[in-house]
Specification:
- The protein has 168 residues and is mainly α.
- The protein has two domains: 91 residues; 73 residues, Arc Repressor Mutant, subunit A.
- Helix 1 packs across helix 3, helix 2 packs across helix 3 and helix 6 packs across helix 7.
């Protein structure tokens, strides 16, 4: 599908997609934003691949991309709620300024996006080590993989962190 084809796809299905997203989100402005993001993702994906997309069932395709964006949206909302709850429980001397809170929130969202790009087993290994504090032996036992595999997955995760734009 050419860029003109994506324009036609937009013209024919953007209202439908916005309504579909609205039924899942209950917010017309958020639905409109995610509809725009859906078409933007399709356009970017096509440009990256350099190949034309062949979409046999446009609404099913748009719904799949849109559903992924809805999941990302709810995950970000959940992450933000957890962060705000944590801030509310902090002693006053550790309370961050609004600018520091914004920077922390942005870093958390970037980290979430980074982790989302990892293979599920790599992400699980990384989180078990970094969040739960498990040893490599414990992780290997829990996931049913070898300790050497745990080390390899941790290297992959650390490499992704180093190569990312996330500033900790």
């Amino acid at each position: 599908m050419s860029e003109e084809g994506i324009g036609l796809l937009y013209a024919e299905h953007s209202s439908w997609l916005t309504g579909w997203l609205y039924r899942r989100l209950g917010c017309s402005s958020q639905a409109a934003d995610l509809a725009q993001d859906t078409f933007l993702r399709i356009l970017i994906s096509q440009r990256k691949s350099g190949e034309s997309l062949a979409i046999d069932r446009p609404r099913a395709y748009l719904a799949t991309v849109g559903q992924r964006l809805v999941c990302d949206y709810f995950r970000r909302q959940s992450l933000e709620r957890a962060y705000l709850e944590l801030l509310a429980t902090m002693p006053e001397e550790f309370v961050l300024s609004p600018e520091e809170q914004w920077q922390m929130r942005e870093t958390l969202l970037q980290l979430d996006a980074l982790l989302d790009r990892l293979k599920p087993v790599v992400r699980a290994v990384f989180l078990l080590a970094q969040i739960d504090g498990l040893t490599y032996v414990q992780i290997a036992r829990q996931l049913g993989i070898g300790e050497r595999t745990v080390k390899r997955h941790m290297c992959t995760a650390f490499e992704a962190c180093i190569l990312s734009d996330v500033t900790f």
